[in-house]
Design goal:
- The complex is a heterodimer of chains A (about 300) and B (about 425).
- Chain A has 13 helices and no strands.
- Chain A has helices at about 5-40, 55-65, 65-100, 105-115, 120-130, 135-145, 155-185, 190-195, 200-210, 215-230, 235-240, 250-260, 265-290.
- Chain A has about 300 residues and is mainly alpha-helical.
- Chain A has one domain (about 65-290): Orthogonal Bundle (MetI-like fold), CATH 1.10.3720.
- With about 425 residues, chain B is of the alpha/beta class.
- Chain B folds into two domains: about 10-145 and about 305-380, D-Maltodextrin-Binding Protein, domain 2 (3-Layer(aba) Sandwich), CATH 3.40.190; about 145-305 and about 385-425, 3-Layer(aba) Sandwich (D-Maltodextrin-Binding Protein, domain 2).
- Helix content of chain B is about 45%, strand content about 15%.
- Chain B contains 18 helices and 15 strands.
- In chain B, strands 1, 2, 3, 4, 7 and 14 form a six-stranded mixed sheet that branches. Chain B has a five-stranded mixed sheet with strand order 9-10-11-8-12.
- In chain B, strand 9 (about 180-185) and strand 10 (about 190-195) form a beta hairpin.
- Chain B is globular.
- Classes of the chains: A mainly alpha (about 300), B alpha/beta (about 425).
- At the A-B interface, loops of A face helix 3, helix 4 and helix 17 of B.
Chain lengths: ~300, ~425
């Protein structure tokens, strides 16, 4: 009995130490997530009608909702459009500003600026760029090539792509910082050894630099995937999801359903779908990609 | 030692705070949105300060809550969390939603004396249409507007049109528009004839067209829409034809926010927008411009729009009485005139137009009376139960029709089916 006491005390200590973190994790992540799943089985309460249990009716509605599928398709396109491009651009920019060049800090700062600016402010600037007729893009293409005015944000074919361009511009600089840090931690001796062996720059990049950057690439791409579901601020300013849901992504649709239309029950159901997909993606990335990456 | 003295200090501070609060009279929280350019937020803040200075018994915390959409979201969220403001300005069209959520109380309990009743009857009837339902008054008109047509007189002159005459009918708007649409050597349009913005909430300006086509979009009980009425389809077809058939308007979705700027930049010779932009246009248009009522087809017509004052549940009687008193004061002629001159919103009462300030302003700038006179032809803004949802269906249908995703008739029939599904519960 007396022998076990210190052990119990250690146990209590341990729990006390993790308690603050656990409290916050539960209060802001786990309990809301479970509550969301719970609410998704109930109808939306209206002033005169309390919510009642409706089973999987909300889920059936979701699967039959053409907007849901359209929005999901948009989200897929948004992810495909933003992730590879922004990661590739980030890598190229990092390689560029890692070299010794005149005004290096200035270029680094310029690349990083979009990340520092609030997305809403950025979206307002881009809104002006895209404005038909007197916007920056139309003024340039009109003066140089005599092109007619374009309505990028106002036509369903181009609205989502216009939003994707803003996202890439915003994200690439952020990812560049991670690549830059990773590049500077690669030992110079590896490169020097390769140079003595007569390896070309190309070979050095593909055989040494790129493999050693893989952990960073994993980290950056996980972030990019999360962001492709999470970054919607600029959509409010640029297109408001329009025209006719052409530029709506899943999270935007959830916000609209829950806080514009106040269909909180259905909003919870859509959120569960989002949670489910994010969980699948996270599991996929950690279990399948992680194995193929060399950390040392 | 230190700990106990600290506790004592905290307790003492809390005690003084609470006695101070009870000695201090009524405290009110008041949310307001701003939807137009210019210094509207400052004007509301100034008016509130002026009232508080004159009424030491009341303390008003005026909170700028963003756009109309943000404001309604904040109000509903705060109310559900038990922290409802006592007073808020919100879209007049959101009345049914707020009733349905059981968040607001009617003004009737605070309208007792004959003077109060006279005050209530002094508002323009067009504005009261979506402020009253079921014999009760839920909203008091404040930042109310109606869309009007602005035209560039210089552009009219250049196109060989009489700069003093605005198009008065749908046909004229097309024929004037064709003369006003200018192309450069490459055949690219440099100036469009007409601009009716269609982004965000196209239903509002579209309601101008449907009213002119002599059809009402929703009944006054807010539980039945007419989106697939042949006259509504005809009006939508006219809107679509402006760019596709007649080539007088920019194709695709036309941005609401950039519309005044496009007008100033001579990208469009005629624009439809809210009268709330009047002061903005007056200050910034680099040419002479005119303001006219929207053109007529079967009749003249326009929706009203903008925000009403609402009283919220969860407040004490004393607070609500104080809130009503503030509403009475701010809608009194002098204050209403100040508000109208600063923004361009339509003073909601006839007596405001009789003040010296307003008369002098109207004599100097006759365009302000256009919106007021248009009220004779105006109808209530589209408002139904679950308003955001139902008008959302119409917005989507219009966007689909304008961008050519769907036939006009199909799009509107789909919207009607969706609206029926939601509103069936309320009949």
């Amino acid at each position: 009995m007396t022998a076990r006491l210190p052990q119990t005390r250690e146990w209590i200590h341990g729990w006390l130490l993790v308690l603050p973190a656990l409290v916050f994790l539960f209060a802001f992540t786990h309990i809301p997530a479970v509550a969301t799943i719970w609410h998704s089985f109930f109808s939306t309460p209206r002033g005169r009608r309390p919510s009642r249990f409706i089973g999987i009716e909300n889920y059936e509605k979701m699967l039959a909702d053409p907007v849901f599928w359209k929005v999901l398709g948009n989200n897929l396109w948004f992810a495909l459009g933003t992730i590879p491009t922004s990661v590739a651009i980030a890598l190229v920019m990092a390689l560029w500003v890692n070299d010794r060049l005149a005004g290096r800090s200035l270029v680094r700062m310029a690349y990083f600026t979009p990340t520092v600016l609030p997305l809403i402010a950025v979206a307002n600037i881009w809104l002006f760029f895209y404005t038909p007729g007197f916007g920056l893009f139309d003024q340039i293409t009109g003066a140089l090539f005599g092109w007619p005015q374009s309505n990028m944000l106002g036509s369903p074919a181009s609205a989502l792509n216009a939003v994707i361009v803003v996202t890439i511009w915003k994200e690439a600089g952020f990812f560049m910082i991670f690549y830059l840090a990773a590049l500077q931690s690669i030992p110079v001796s590896l490169r020097e050894a390769a140079l003595i062996e007569g390896a070309s720059r190309r070979t050095i990049f593909w055989r040494i630099t790129f493999p050693l950057l893989m952990p960073t690439t994993l980290f950056v791409s996980i972030n990019a995937v999360i962001n492709s579901f999470r970054l919607i601020d600029h959509i409010f300013i640029l297109t408001d999801g329009g025209p006719d849901y052409a530029s709506t992504v899943l999270l935007f649709y959830i916000y609209e359903t829950a806080f514009k239309y106040w269909e909180t029950g259905y909003g919870a159901t859509l959120t569960v779908a989002l949670l489910f997909m994010m969980a699948l993606l996270a599991i996929g990335q950690f279990f399948f990609l992680d194995r193929r990456i060399h950390y040392k | 030692m230190f700990k106990t003295s600290l506790l004592k200090a905290v307790a003492a501070a809390a005690l003084t705070m609470s006695t101070w609060a009870s000695a201090q009279a009524v405290e009110l929280q008041f949310y307001f949105p701003v939807a137009v350019g210019g210094g509207a937020a400052e004007v509301i803040q100034d008016l509130t300060n002026e009232y508080v200075a004159a009424n030491p018994g009341v303390k008003i915390d005026a909170v700028y809550a963003g756009s109309y959409q943000d404001t309604i979201t904040k109000v509903i969220t705060a109310s559900r969390g038990g922290n409802a403001p006592q007073l808020s300005v919100a879209l007049s069209a959101d009345m049914f939603t707020l009733i349905d959520e059981e968040l607001i109380v009617p003004f009737d309990d605070y309208i007792k004396t004959d003077a109060d009743k006279a005050w209530l009857n002094g508002f323009y009837p067009a504005f009261m249409e979506n402020s009253q339902t079921g014999g009760k008054t839920y909203g008091i008109p404040f930042q109310r507007s109606t869309p009007v047509m602005y035209w560039n007189k210089e552009a009219f002159k250049e196109a060989g049109l009489d700069p003093e005459v605005a198009p008065a009918t749908w046909e004229e708007m097309v024929s004037f528009g064709q003369k006003l649409t200018k192309k450069d050597a490459n055949g690219n349009v440099t100036q469009w004839g007409v601009r009716i913005p269609t982004s965000g909430f196209p239903y509002w300006l579209f309601q101008g067209l449907t009213t002119q086509n002599d059809v009402i979009l929703a009944n006054s009980d807010g539980n039945k829409t007419n989106f697939d009425d042949p006259k509504v389809i005809e009006a939508a077809q006219y809107l679509v034809d402006l760019s596709t058939k007649h080539g007088v308007m920019e194709p695709g979705i036309v941005e609401w926010g950039a519309t005044p700027k496009a007008f100033f930049e001579r990208q469009a010779a005629i624009m439809w927008t809210t009268t709330g932009n009047l002061t903005n246009v007056r200050k910034n248009a680099p040419f002479e411009f005119g303001v006219a009522m929207l053109p007529a087809n079967k009749r003249r017509g326009a929706p009203t729009g903008g925000g009403n004052f609402y009283l919220f549940k969860g407040s004490s009687d004393e607070q609500l009485a104080a809130a009503v008193d503030f509403v009475k004061w701010i809608s009194a002629p002098e204050q209403a005139a100040k508000w109208t001159i600063a923004t361009g919103y339509v003073a909601p009462r006839a007596d405001a137009w009789e003040t010296a300030a307003m008369q002098a302003y109207a004599a100097d700038f006759p365009a302000v009376t256009v919106a007021r006179d248009q009220l004779n032809h105006a109808v209530a803004e589209l408002a139904t139960y679950q308003n955001q949802r139902v008008t959302g269906f119409l917005n989507d249908a219009l966007a689909a029709a304008i961008t050519g995703q769907k036939e006009v008739a199909t799009a509107l029939k789909d919207a009607q089916t969706q609206a029926d599904a939601v509103l069936a519960d309320y009949r």
